[in-house]
Amino acid sequence: MKGQRLGGPTALPTESLRRLAWFRYRVRRFMRFSERVARSMGITPQQHQLLLGVAGYTGRGWATISELAEFLQGRHNAVVGLVQRAADRGLVRKVQGEKDRRYVKVHLTRKGSAILDEISRKNITELRTLQIEITKTRQSRPRDIPAAQGA
Q1: Short-list 26, 46, 27, 50, CA closest to 35
Q2: Is this model's pTM higher than 0.90 or not?
Q3: Sheet containing strand 62-64, strands side by side
């Protein structure tokens, strides 16, 4: 039943929970897709997220370590390591502040920018497909997932 509720009179309707579950499923599917694309380009998903944060998070085309830690929702020390490994691979370059050498600006290199561009193009195409799927689908489960036996 569409109006059925689980868990008592103040619980969310089953339909709301179903939609939330399928939205979460589709987001997760996109994340898996994006992770596979990053790996196919020779970088880790974390490096991809770093490149995306450097290029787009602040709107300046560069970011500080603290800004990247916020964007990645990671610890400052872990982001320092991630940035260093990306710099070692030629994906980003670090520019230390003139007045305070602890202040580091992280910029994309040409190599990092090219990789980010390719991944982003593929992700945008996948997101367009996902958007169509989310807006037009009102089914209780995707077509490619069979119903439980005996249901």
Answers
A1: 46
A2: no
A3: 62-64, 104-108, 92-96
Tell me the CATH number at 118.
1.10.10.10
Residue at 32 is within a domain = yes
As to burial, measured by CB atoms within 10 angstroms (0-12 exposed, 13-18 middle, 19+ buried), residue 77 is exposed
| Beta pairing partners, 96 | 104
51-95 residue pLDDT tens: 999 999 999 999 999 999 999 999 999 999 999 999 999 999 999
pLDDT at 34 over 60: yes
CA distances from 123 to 29, 90, 111, 130 (A): 12, 22, 18, 10
Q: Is residue 150 part of a domain?
A: no
Report if residue 143 sits inside a domain: no
Is-contact 53 42, C-beta < 8 A?
Answer: no
Give the span between the Cα atoms of 134 and 111, in whole angstroms.
34
- Cα-flanking dihedrals φ and ψ of residue 74, to 5°? -120, 170
Q: Which tokens hold the place of 88?
A: 């070692």
Q: Is the pLDDT of residue 15 over 50?
A: yes
pLDDT, residue 147, reads 58
